[in-house]
Amino acid sequence: MTMRSIGIMLAAGAMLAAAPAQARNDDGAAPQRARNIILFLGDAGGVPTLNAAGIMAHDRPQSLFIQSMPHVGLSDTSALDNWVTDSAAGMSAIMTGHKTNSGMISALPAADGAITPVKSFLEYAEQRGLSTGVVTNMPIWDATPAACFAHVATRKDKDQIFRQMLTPRFGNGVDILIGKGQADAVASFAKDGTTPQAAFARAGYRFGDDPALVKDSGRAAVLRDADYAPIPAVEATIGQLARNPKGYFLMVEWDMHTDKPENGLKHVIEMDEMIRRVSAIAGKDTLILFTADHSFGLRMTSGKRNAPMAQQYAAAAAKPGATVASNAIIGVEDSHTGEEVIAAAAGPGADQVHGFFANTRLFDVMLKAMGWTKED
Which residues bind Mg(2+) per the record (predicted)? Predict the structure, then answer.
């Protein structure tokens, strides 16, 4: 499917489904506290990437659903040790309220190379009996999902991340897991003399490679090495998590790296439509947040309004000798960048998102929205 056809499809969908109004209680007042929180994380989804994706798909600026969310701020993404973060430190700051060194997962550096684990927001939710879920189009052990439930010195330690996934410090661990990395899981659990099927079954999960598995009640882990349809998987996950009267926390990551611009921009459109759909079904007691862990070196450098941007990009890319870095429409420096990223919010507690702030503040936003206090 081309970028142009994606844009046409989504534009038609937008005509059929207007953005939901701000939720209200029966007495007309907005809910005071959230019962549920859904955190959408666009990995490398900086402002330039969102801007380019919207124009590529819809041929007009500020055309994403994300860009219509009522509360918006700009989040600093620096790590404890570097101005330009990686996903490990970036997501750890959001999930724990603490900046840490690049490469570390929800832990702080300590003396002699040791680490100090820091409780994540998902662990707060587990401790209080909420249901929890992690959905990603990246490996389930990768930095962003791992920051929700693991505490390791290096994001490369996939064996320890898998072990901690199934031996939670609080509650019974993540209730629904969907991501890639099935082959990685096979290799990792083999070192312990077992298989992913056996290990997840012992931890109380139904295990498989089909996201439809989530539609059945109970805990589920879906690991596969191929892409899957994101919206049905997320909607099914919400349907299961919402059964808990105490509420739920769900983190959804979608990779938006634009080292291959077509892939990254397509993923922006996928997540944007996902957020649109979820906003219509999540309920008035759900805080919905979108942000990125860091930005990326993409810039839209040209383009005319008198022709579809996607066609102009494709034509420029097809010219002899053209490269991503020298495309006349979009240029890419293949690296993370350090500028602020957008944070957008809707629902109870969303009014806390405004102005310029550190990425660690998003942890406090979620905590306050639920009416919880910080416990280190």
Answer: 43, 142, 144, 253
